[in-house]
Structure formats: structure tokens, C-alpha cells
Specification:
Layout lengths: L2 E10 L2 E10 L24 H6 L14 E7 L5 E7 L1 H5 L3 E6 L7 E2 L4 E2 L4 E2 L5 E7 L2 H10 L1 E6 L6 H5 L18 E5 L2 H7 L2 E9 L11 E7 L2 E6 L4 H12 L6 E4 L15 H13 L3 E4 L2 H7 L6 E9 L5 E13 L9 H5 L6 E9 L13 H19 L3 H7 L17 H12 L1 H4 L10 E12 L8 E7 L4 E5 L8 H13 L6 E4 L17 H28 L6 E4 L2 E4 L6 E3 H7 L4 E7 L11 E12 L5 E11 L6 H20 L30 E6 L23 H13 L10 H9 L1
Helix pairs in contact: 10-11, 10-18, 14-15, 17-18
Bound molecules: dioxothiomolybdenum(VI) ion (MOS).
Dioxothiomolybdenum(VI) ion (MOS) binds next to loops.
């Protein structure tokens, strides 16, 4: 297994991650398109599907250990306050209450980049952790929370990025409200020169709201000690990340901590970080000598476990008469909550179109609200809505069809680095998508539909990273009966990781998938790999799985050569057996081979290869939307969404379509209804449940059509897979906004596009 250690980088969420990683240097024959493959690319049902639909799948939420007790958290009642006193006496007297943690009796464990502690006497948003109660039941723990008496000294607070920018604004932390002390800036070329070259200069401003992840499974952990060894079951996108934070927080060697995530009910970025609740469960379990389960309820999740930060984005561009972009600038303000986080949204602005003169300035501002976290394509979802609305406006100024305008400013190379792309099939995606929606036949002149129900068609582009990269490993064990165990350096957050790993191994070794066990999400048994985030899991893990399987095939061939007494070049591997090419009577199956070799198990370790140097690696695509706007009620109905993307090779047609459906539906929520409402008078969130924070239901789901225009990015890796979990949501809101404009001739520049905004745009 040729390996080397190399310096490399790959795009993770919103930025490049530099690593020095061990990689495989083995070269395997390129897979051709999926029609030539047996298992990969096919609409294979999830191998964990039965367990999930039958209810036997154990999620962290389902973990129930003998003697387990239950913990709940008390959150701050105020957006900014100093805790003067906590009286836990009454709560402790409640029968069944076992222990209560507060800042007074808990080790000072630094949190959020040392900007606070696990428990801190200064609480900076509603819901900030004040105390934790562990009791014999969840109900008793809940009751006890109400008996804790907290004396707060309320402080003035800030609830908007505007407010946070004021010179006399309340400082959330001593060093001011701008994260990092100054805005993030980027530039290339010379924007002043670029604007001089322009025939038309245009600017506009767009707003997006705070949206909350709201995965189906709430944030939760269970902790159990066995002597000095700790096992944590956690609903997390990164078992290794949690293991490392738990070990560091508790001062334990990593060998004493095991983190397990077998199944997970969604994360969307909100579960990339270790929760305070996880450490609290571990501390309580140690004190009590009992397993402790902790769950964060829906209300608390809406307050403190992360959100997509809001944005106000001012875009300016210069164009020539023919529509060529000459300069672009973006200034954005995002409120990221009470602790340092990131709220930039310039990724698509800087990367989609060809424009040499560019400047972006992004302010991430702290306010007294729950802290932002990565949320499915962080920055790109809000950035793409603004950019792609703006691009349609520019096209109109230039008198050019919006799709034509995009093609005119198409970038053949990465505008940031000048590097070529491994593959870029955005043109093909535009073509497929526009044909499927009927762009040229059905799309009417803007605002020309008659009657009170007005239909329109719009589109938006997406760009994302999604190359994946090393370090990522897969261990393969072949049993003596020819069945296999795959250990992947990952966890399955619901996207189908279990299934594609089995598919890749099955493709190479021709072992049926029902003879495979896939193990993920256990830090003590699996090899290392990335968090399930940034659309990196399949592009990182699938090549490592192929490497492990190809090595296994080589091992089998070499064993068969020794047993059969024939050179390897006279042997052929077929359906989990080896045959002599020239002598039909000579063959050996895997079980016979193992038996002859007195082995019970063959083991190989597969690794991801390095990403190709001097190339940009991105996924591309576009969504096309057809909408119907009721001009009497202001309600927008989505009739159809077409998604057309270059995502490299499809590993599993079914799970790829699942992900597109999920992303599009989540994008519809962002476009039309989802919005966290923070009351400026009280600093409290007014809608912390599904009754008041609206997400789409099946009634809101339109016809969805998916086209993948790529067959495989063979320059990228031995499987040619790019990530697609985030591309699925990115262009949805922009496509809908542009379709609404096409329908009614008025542009909604603020998300969500609720009926009141539509009516205001129409009649005021
Ligand atoms: Mo990330 S927002 O978990 O892909």
C-alpha cells in the first residue's frame, strides 16, 4: 500500500482547511460512467433503511442504560445579565433530584474560544446555560429547574447588527462587538478602475433572516463511566471532534474517551460543534457514578444551539452595455450572536462570475442572542439569494435574458486563483435545467401574466467546495466466509454513508451488500476521517473505501497465486473468486483461500489520495423555479423546482435524490417562511416552537425534478465524487425570488418572502 505524507488543503464549509496528511498514492483504473458499473450509481436502498423505518434503529435520543438518570439545563431568562446569586436549596430538596451544577460549584472550563466558561456568571443571551439539574426522571429534572432561584442583575442589551455597530453600543465582550476587531476584507484587481470602465453602475441591498437548524432529533448526549473510561453517545456530526473536546475539557487522555453516534436525526451544521450539554452529562455521570442522559429541548435548541446568521448585503456592480461585468463590490453585516462566530456571505459573490475587479467587506457582529453556527452551506445560502437576485437586476438593466447574462459572464477558470477547474459543467447544468423548466418556451415577459394568479419562472446558480480530501481512511476486514466488515472514518448523519461505503466495496470485490457490515461513528474502533460537514464525506471516504477494496483484491490475487501455483497475470478475479485464465479447472473462492492460508481475516487500510494541485475543485449547478403568486393574498406557491448540477459521480441515485429533495425543501422554508423573531424590547425570541417558527410541510412541497449532468471527476479522485449535500439548498431561494419577480414585476429583497412583503411590494 504505497503511501506518503503530503501538505494539502481542501475546502471545508466556508474556507480552506490546510492539512498534512497521509495519502494513498496507488493509481487505479478510472471508473467510466455509472452505466458501466454494477452497484455504484444505482438507486440502492439504504442498508440501514429497514432498521430506520421499523423503529429498531437506535439514535442517541433512544439510548437507555440500566440505572440511567436524566439531566436538564436551566437557561438565562434575560439577554444580558450578571448572576448575582443562585439559590438551589429548594430544587435540591425535591425528591428525586440528585445534583445541581452552577458556575459556583463547577470547574471553569473555557468555551467558545475562551470567550466564556461552561457556566459563567455573565449570561449574554436568553437561554445561556445557568444551571443543570440531574434527577431520577426527566419530569423531576424539569420541575427542579423551576425551583432554582436566580437573582439577575439585568444589563442593557443589543438585538441587531445595526445596534451593535453604534459607537455607544453595549459591548457584548470587552473587546467590542465586531468579531475579530474588524471586518473581513477581500479584493482583487482595481474596483475604481473597473467602475470607470462601466456603462452602467447599479447597486442594491438585500436582507436575509435568522434561520434555525431544527433537525428532527434534538441535541442530546448520554454519558457513562466504566472506572476511568468514559463512553459518550452523542448526536453529533463529528465523533472525533467531540472526543477531543471532551478529553481536553475533562483533562483525560483520548484513550479514556469513546464517542459513539450510530444513527442521527439530522444536524445541518448545528451539530458540528461539541455542546456544553455533553460535558455537563459527563461531569454529572462521573459525580454520581451513574449513566446520565441529557436532552436539549426544542425551545432551547431554537435559542442556543446555533442558527444561520442574518445578513444585510449591499451589492454594487458596473457593467458594459453588452452586460460584461467590470467591477463588483459587496458589503455585508451579519449578527452572529453573543459569542464569536462567522457571518460572511461573499463566497458566491467572489467565485461564480468572471470579474477581475472585486472587493468584499464583511462584518460579523455580536449581539445578545444565541450564537450562529455553520448551517448547510454557511454564507452561500444567504449570499446566493442576494447575488442571484442582483444578477437578474443587472441583466434587466442591460436588456439581456438572465440566463444569457450569466453565460456572458461565465468564468472558465477560478476567478480567485486563476486555476482551471477539475471539471465545470455549469453550462450543461444551465442547458438541462432550462430545458426541463421550459425557460425559452414558457417564460413570459416580466409581469405580463394576466389575472390575479400570476405565474413566473426564475433561476439561480450555485457554487460550492465539496472536493473532500485527506486525511480520510477506511479499514476493510474480510471474514473467512467471504463476508466483509467495513470501518469508515466517519459517522452517518442520515445522508447514506453506511450504504455508499458498502456499494463501493461491493463494486470492487463483487461481494453482495447483504454480506457486509458497516461500522461508523465509534472513535474507539473506526479509523480517522472528517466531520460529516462541508459536503466532504462522500468525496473523502469513497476513494478510501475503493483503495481498501482494491488492496483487498490484490491481497486475494496474491494469495491465490501462491495457493494455485500460477503467476498473478495468469489469474483473473471474478465474483469473489479467482480463476486461472487458461485452465478452467483451476479456481479458488475466498473461503477456500483463507482456509488454505490458515487465516480468519484479511485486513486492509484504505486512504484518500491527495487532491490534484493547481486546480480549483468545485461543484456547480442551478435551480429553476416556477411559481404562482396570488396577488390578492400575497401567497407564493411553488409549482416546480428543477435542480441541475455538476456533482461529479453519483454514488447512489436514491440517496442523492433524497438529499436534493431535503435541500430544496429546506431552501423553500428559508425563501418563504422560516424566521427567528427576536424581540427588540425584551431581547427574547418570540417563536421557539414549530407552531410559530414555520417550516415547510408536505403541502408546501412542489414537483421536484433532478438532473445530474456529470459522470465522474476522475482528476479529483478514484471515485470522482464531489459533495452535494449543501449544493442542494444553495440556489433555491434565489431561483424562487427571481421567479416571483418574473411573475409580478416587483422584487422582494428581503427573506422570507411572506405574504405581507408581497402585498407591500405590489400595492405600496
Ligand atoms: Mo455543514 S453546515 O454541517 O455541511
Amino acid at each position: 500500500m504505497p503511501r506518503k505524507i503530503v501538505k494539502t488543503k481542501y475546502f471545508f464549509e466556508e474556507d480552506y482547511r490546510e492539512t498534512i496528511a497521509e495519502v494513498s498514492t496507488d493509481k487505479y483504473e478510472d471508473w467510466k460512467n455509472n452505466d458501466t458499473l454494477k452497484v455504484v450509481g444505482k438507486p440502492v436502498s439504504r442498508i440501514d433503511g429497514y432498521d430506520k423505518v421499523s423503529g429498531t434503529a437506535k439514535y442517541t435520543f433512544d439510548v437507555d442504560l440500566p440505572g440511567m438518570v436524566h439531566a436538564r439545563i436551566l437557561g438565562s431568562a434575560y439577554p444580558n445579565a450578571i448572576i448575582k446569586k443562585i439559590n438551589i436549596k429548594k430544587a435540591k430538596q425535591l425528591e428525586g433530584v440528585l445534583e445541581i451544577l452552577t458556575f459556583e460549584n463547577t470547574p471553569k472550563i473555557p468555551w467558545y474560544n475562551n470567550s466564556t466558561f461552561l457556566f459563567d456568571s455573565h449570561v449574554r443571551c436568553e437561554g445561556d446555560e445557568v444551571a443543570a439539574v440531574v434527577a431520577e426522571s426527566e419530569c423531576i429534572a424539569e420541575e427542579a429547574l423551576k425551583l432554582i432561584e436566580v437573582e439577575y442583575e439585568q444589563l442593557p442589551f443589543v438585538t441587531s447588527s445595526n445596534g451593535a455597530m453604534k459607537t455607544d453600543a453595549v459591548k457584548i465582550h470587552d473587546n467590542g462587538n465586531i468579531v475579530g476587531g474588524r471586518p473581513a476584507e477581500y479584493s482583487r484587481g482595481n474596483v475604481d478602475e473597473g467602475f470607470k470602465e462601466a456603462d452602467i453602475v447599479f447597486e442594491d441591498t438585500f436582507d436575509t433572516q435568522v434561520a434555525v437548524h431544527n433537525p428532527t432529533e434534538v441535541h442530546c448526549s448520554a454519558a457513562n463511566w466504566d472506572g476511568n473510561k468514559l463512553t459518550v453517545w452523542d448526536s453529533t456530526q463529528g465523533v472525533f471532534a467531540v472526543r477531543n473536546v471532551v478529553s481536553a475539557s475533562l483533562g483525560l487522555p483520548e484513550s479514556d474517551v469513546t464517542v459513539i453516534t450510530k444513527y442521527m436525526g439530522g444536524g445541518f451544521g448545528g451539530k458540528l460543534e461539541t455542546g456544553k450539554y455533553t460535558i455537563i452529562a459527563a461531569l454529572l455521570a462521573r459525580d454520581l457514578g451513574k449513566p446520565v442522559k441529557i436532552t436539549v429541548n426544542r425551545k432551547q435548541m431554537n435559542l442556543i444551539t446555533g442558527n444561520r446568521p442574518d445578513s444585510t448585503q449591499s451589492l454594487k456592480a458596473g457593467i458594459k452595455k453588452d452586460g460584461t461585468l467590470t467591477a463588483m463590490t459587496l458589503t455585508s453585516y451579519s449578527a452572529v450572536g453573543a459569542y464569536p462566530s462567522w457571518g460572511g456571505c461573499s463566497g458566491p459573490f467572489r467565485s461564480i462570475y468572471k470579474c477581475g475587479n472585486m472587493k468584499t467587506t464583511e462584518y460579523s457582529l455580536m449581539i445578545n442572542a444565541g450564537r450562529a453556527r455553520a448551517f448547510r452551506a454557511p454564507g452561500h445560502v444567504q449570499g446566493t439569494f442576494a447575488l442571484e437576485s442582483f444578477i437578474d437586476e443587472l441583466a434587466e438593466k442591460a436588456g439581456i435574458d438572465p440566463l444569457e447574462f450569466r453565460l456572458k459572464n461565465y468564468s472558465e477558470t477560478d476567478p480567485n486563483s486563476g486555476n482551471p477547474y477539475t471539471t465545470k459543467l455549469l453550462r450543461e447544468a444551465y442547458k438541462k435545467g432550462s430545458e426541463a423548466i421550459g425557460w425559452h418556451q414558457k417564460r413570459k415577459a416580466t409581469g405580463s401574466d394576466t389575472g390575479y394568479l400570476k405565474r413566473g419562472i426564475g433561476m439561480a446558480t450555485q457554487i460550492w467546495g465539496g472536493s473532500g480530501g485527506p486525511p480520510a481512511y477506511v479499514t476493510l476486514k474480510l471474514n473467512s466466509d467471504g463476508s466483509a466488515i467495513i470501518l469508515g472514518g466517519s459517522q452517518d448523519i442520515g445522508t447514506g454513508t453506511y450504504t455508499f461505503l458498502a456499494q463501493v466495496v461491493s463494486e470492487v470485490l463483487e461481494i453482495p451488500m447483504n454480506k457486509m457490515q458497516v461500522i461508523l461513528g465509534n472513535t474507539s474502533s473506526i479509523p480517522f476521517g472528517p466531520e460529516s460537514g462541508g459536503s466532504t464525506t462522500a468525496p473523502s471516504l469513497s476513494p478510501a473505501a475503493r483503495d481498501a477494496a482494491e488492496q483487498m483484491k490484490n491481497k486475494i490475487m496474491s494469495g491465490a497465486s501462491a495457493v494455485l501455483g500460477l503467476p498473478e497475470n495468469e489469474l483473473i478475479y471474478k465474483e469473489a473468486a479467482v480463476y486461472a485464465i487458461n485452465d478452467k479447472s483451476k479456481s479458488i473462492t475466498i473461503p477456500d483461500l483463507m482456509h488454505r492460508m490458515h487465516e480468519q481475516m484479511f485486513i486492509t487500510n484504505g486512504a484518500r489520495s491527495v487532491n490534484p494541485e493547481h486546480y480549483a475543485i468545485n461543484s456547480f449547478g442551478a435551480h429553476f423555479a416556477e411559481v404562482e403568486v396570488n396577488t390578492e393574498t400575497g401567497k407564493i406557491k411553488i409549482l416546480k423546482i428543477v435542480a441541475a448540477h455538476d456533482i461529479g459521480r453519483v454514488l447512489n441515485k436514491k440517496t442523492v435524490e433524497n438529499q436534493f429533495h431535503g435541500g430544496i425543501i429546506q431552501g423553500i422554508g428559508f425563501a418563504l417562511m422560516e424566521e427567528r423573531i427576536l424581540d427588540a424590547n425584551t431581547g427574547k425570541v418570540l417563536n421557539t416552537d414549530f407552531h410559530t417558527y414555520k417550516i415547510p410541510t408536505i403541502q408546501d412541497v412542489p414537483e421536484i425534478e433532478i438532473h445530474v449532468v456529470s459522470t465522474g471527476d476522475n482528476l479529483l479522485s478514484n471515485t470522482g465524487v464531489k459533495g452535494m449535500g449543501e449544493p442542494a439548498i444553495i440556489p433555491t431561494a434565489g431561483a424562487i425570488a427571481n421567479a416571483v419577480y418574473n411573475a409580478i414585476g416587483k422584487r422582494i429583497k428581503s427573506l422570507p418572502m411572506t405574504p405581507d412583503k408581497v402585498l407591500n411590494a405590489l400595492y405600496s
